[in-house]
Amino acid sequence: MTDVDIWSDATFMAAVGEAVWAPSIHNSQPWRFRRTADGIEVLVDRDRALPVCDPDLRAARISCGAAAFNLRLALAVAGAPAACTIGSGDVVVHLVPDRGRPVTPAECRLHRQIRRRHTNRSGFAEARVAPGVMTQLVDEAADEGGWLHVVEDDESALWTVAQLTREADAQLKADPAYVAELRAWTSADDDVQGVGRGAAGAAPHPAEMMPRRDFGGPPREDTRDLSGAPVVAVLGYQGEHRMHEIQAGMVLQRVLLRAADLGLATAMYSQPIEVPTVRERLRLALRRPYAPQLVLRFGYAPTTCYTNRRPVSDVIDR
Ligand SMILES: Cc1cc2nc3c(=O)[nH]c(=O)nc-3n(C[C@H](O)[C@H](O)[C@H](O)COP(=O)(O)O)c2cc1C
C-alpha cells in the first residue's frame, strides 16, 4: 500500500469492528460509519439518541468521539494511519489516509486494551491509586488537548462532587420519563445493546458516597460504601461546543485505554453533567473555564461482566 492508498473493505470493516467497543451512554452505540470517496466518516445516529437524558446529543457526540479514537487507533495499528478532522452536521469525524509511518509502542499498548476495557459498576478494592499513576492519566488527557481534574483527596472537595452527584441523581430519578428511558436501555440478559444484568452491578445503596446510575441490578445487603477508595476525577476539554464534545470523547477514550493499560478499573457518572444547574456548580467548584464533560472514578477491581455490541454490519451505512 502506498502512502495515500484508500483503505480496502477489509481494513475498513476490521477497524469498525474495534471502534464499536468504545463506551457509550447507556451502551446505546449512537454511531454509524460510512466510506466516502476519500476516507471514512463517523456519524451520530439520531435514531439511537436518548431524548430525555441527552436532549442535545452531547453524550452521543462524546460516545462517537470515543469510537472515532478507537477507529483511528485500529487503522494506525493496521499500518493505515489516518488524519482526522471534526465534521459538521451529523458527521462527527472525517478520516482520510495519512502518510505511512510505523505504529508507535504507545499506540500498540492502547490498542491492546480496546476489548479489555469496560465500565466497573461493582465494588472496588480498598487499595489506593498512587498519585504518580493519576499523573500519567492527567498527562494523557492533556496530550489529547483535554483536561482531567483529579479531585483533591480532602474531604471538602470530595464531598462537593459527591453532593452534586447525589443532587443530580435525585433530580433525574424524580422524572418518570428519565426512569422509563433508563429501563428501556436495561436488559435482563446479554442483549447486543443497553446494560445487561451482569454489567449493571448491584443496585445503588444509600450508603454509597457517589450514587451509581441504577441499571436494575439486584438489591445489595452490604451497607458499606463499596466505592470509598477509588480516586474521583473530572474530564473536560478546552471548550464546550459541539466540536469540543467530540474531542472530549477522544480524550475520554485515550484516558480509559491508558487506565486499563495501567491495570485500573473505571466507573463513570454523568448525572451531574446532565442537570445544567448542577453542571455549572461543578464547573465553579473545580474553578474551570469550561463545563466538565464526565465524572470518573479510578481504582482496582476484579474484571466484571462486559456489555455487548451490535454486529458491525448494523453500524455501516452502505
Ligand atoms: C458520555 C458517557 C456517559 C456515561 N455515563 C455513565 C453513567 O452515568 N453511569 C454509568 O454507570 N455508566 C456511564 N457510562 C458508561 C456506559 O454505560 C458504558 O460505556 C456502556 O454501558 C458500555 O459498557 P462498557 O463501557 O463496559 O463497554 C457513560 C459512558 C459515556 C460515553
UniProtKB/TrEMBL annotation:
Annotated Basic and acidic residues bias: 210-225
Positions of the UniProt region annotated as Disordered: 196-226
Record-linked InterPro entries: Nitroreductase-like, Nitroreductase/BluB
Protein name as it appears in the record: Nitroreductase
